[in-house]
Amino acid sequence: MYFKVRLADLVIGVECLYEITRMFCKDYVSEDMPVDFEVKITDEDIRNERKISDDTVRKKENNENVQILDSEIWKDENHYRNKYLETLALLRKIAKYLPEYDCFLMHGAVVSANDYGYMFTAPSGTGKSTHINLWKQYFDGIEIINGDKPFIRVMKDKVWAYGTPWCGKEGWQKNASVPLKGICLLNRGRENHIAQITPVQVLPFIMRQVHYTDDSEMAGKTLELLNRLMTEVKLYRLECDVSREAAKCSYEGMVGNE
Fold it and tell me: How far apart are CA 198 and CA 41, in angstroms?
């Protein structure tokens, strides 16, 4: 089947195998606009995603620090179902083209406060979802743009963060964009403390949170975009526990200073 989605202000034609993939993207479907590019999902793409997923499960069994899907909805006898694998293949195919449009995929959670976006990024299981949920709980006007895999587009005037359907097990996503004002590296700690840091301090970690394609030219373009991102967006490191005081610390440290 064929449909169109609008992601990061790009219209993408999608040819897929399963109807549920269109339903997965339903908040972003945009049928009446010319496409910027098209992608096609094949059985080979799904087999490739299955191999990647099975490798992830084996690493998990070997106690390596990896993230696997928790929901039983997508699992079938310890293997991921083809319908779910197609959504991963679609993300991979779309991400391949994004650098051509000054855009890339980054692992993190983006919230909106006072019309600006703030991204929390950390290794899986560190507590990004818990922390942004505290923002929702204690501060007015907070919206979650994406809970796991937003698209980041580096424009001439601003850096923008966009919601996508790939949003983590909580399902936190919104078809919206917001100018990105800050990126916060979240770490667990006994005391709550936030400080602004330099690109040099954060570069090794941030590089691991960005998706790169196998194409060397596009990977190079992604690195250029990442460099621009880190010079135009404020960077922070947060040490925190799980409390209202932790949320207040990060909120006042980023939003309160604007």
Answer: 40
What the block records as the tokens of 32 is 């009446």
Place of tokens 């999902």: 41
pTM of the prediction?
A: 0.89
pLDDT tens string, the chain, 258 residues long: the values are: 999 999 999 999 999 999 999 999 999 999 888 999 999 999 999 999 999 887 665 555 554 444 444 444 445 544 568 999 999 999 999 999 999 999 999 999 999 999 999 999 988 777 889 999 999 999 999 999 999 999 999 998 899 999 999 998 899 999 999 999 999 999 988 899 999 999 999 899 999 999 999 899 999 999 999 999 999 999 999 999 999 999 999 999 999 854
Between CA 243 and CA 44, with CA 149 as vertex, the angle to 5 degrees is 145
**Alpha carbon of 203 to those of 70, 126, 137, 163: distances in Å?**
30, 19, 31, 24
